[in-house]
Amino acid sequence: MKQFVDLHMHSSYSDGIHKPEILVAMAAEKNLKAIALADHDAVEGIDEALEAGERLGVEVIPAVELSVEFKKHHDVHLLGYYIDYNDAVFLEKLADFRESRDHRGQAIIANINAKLEREKKGSMSYEEADALAEGAFGRPHIARVLVDKGFAHDLQDAFERYLVPCNVPKRYFPMEEALAEIRRLRGISVLAHPTSITEDRNTLKAIIKELAAMGLEGIEVYNNMCNDDDMSFLERQAIDHGLVMTGGSDFHGIEAGIEMGVGRGHLAVPYSSAEALKRLHEEKRSGA
């Protein structure tokens, strides 16, 4: 009987390498009961994932992962589950972010070409990378071109050698705006991989407390960036603030050693996490 879920993964519509239907097929093969497609600032793959889920017997939760800033902390990731992903205002905001992401991609490629020129290796174009993007343009699309042209051995090598040193800062949603938008869409807001914000537990404890007071509804307790002790700490924070506990592999298909469903091998997210999200969603729909 299927008992486990993966509530955090990415498709080729953002910075993953697999199409949504392929992700669902992989989930079915791994006997996962439910998954959530949470592309970065993009929702175009959700309908495809839902259709594949119906066909293959995998429950698919529509989601998004927003790039957020909170005070001095940049690149905080906020998940929104069961959002109204067809909302026109939300789609317009994502389109605006996509334009910003495209400009960032062009700037990164300019930096990479300068590095390639110094190395006397050749060049790549924005058009080559953009042709690989089905939704929001992301750095993995650039990495794939670098590999295809022989400038890097694999995707990880492309990131280490070019994407990281040639990076350009992202644009972010302010945390208050992101929480309000997910709430407006009747979604459930969940803080992704909290220890990526800071490993200082006193600071993280204070952040989670403040975000809970602002309306945060859950935290991703079970994730790749945590050891067992970290997860116990996050469980305590969730209990103390009445937050839903979720988890997922943050699977993109490019990270060495990370597999859907189990992450680096130690994840086992129970279906009860998906059920808790579903209960909150139904309460919001009923106006409770």
Automatic annotation (TrEMBL):
SMART domains xref list: POLIIIAc
Pfam families: PHP
Gene3D superfamilies: 1.10.150.650, Metal-dependent hydrolases
PANTHER family named among the record's database cross-references: EXONUCLEASE, POLYMERASE_HISTIDINOL PHOSPHATASE N-TERMINAL DOMAIN-CONTAINING PROTEIN
Record lineage: Bacteria, Pseudomonadati, Thermodesulfobacteriota, Desulfuromonadia, Geobacterales
Gene Ontology MF terms: 5'-3' DNA exonuclease activity; 5'-3' RNA exonuclease activity
Cross-referenced SUPFAM superfamilies: PHP domain-like
Xref: CDD domains: PHP_HisPPase_AMP (cd07438)
Name of the molecule in the record: PHP C-terminal domain protein
Positions of the Polymerase/histidinol phosphatase N-terminal domain: 5-70
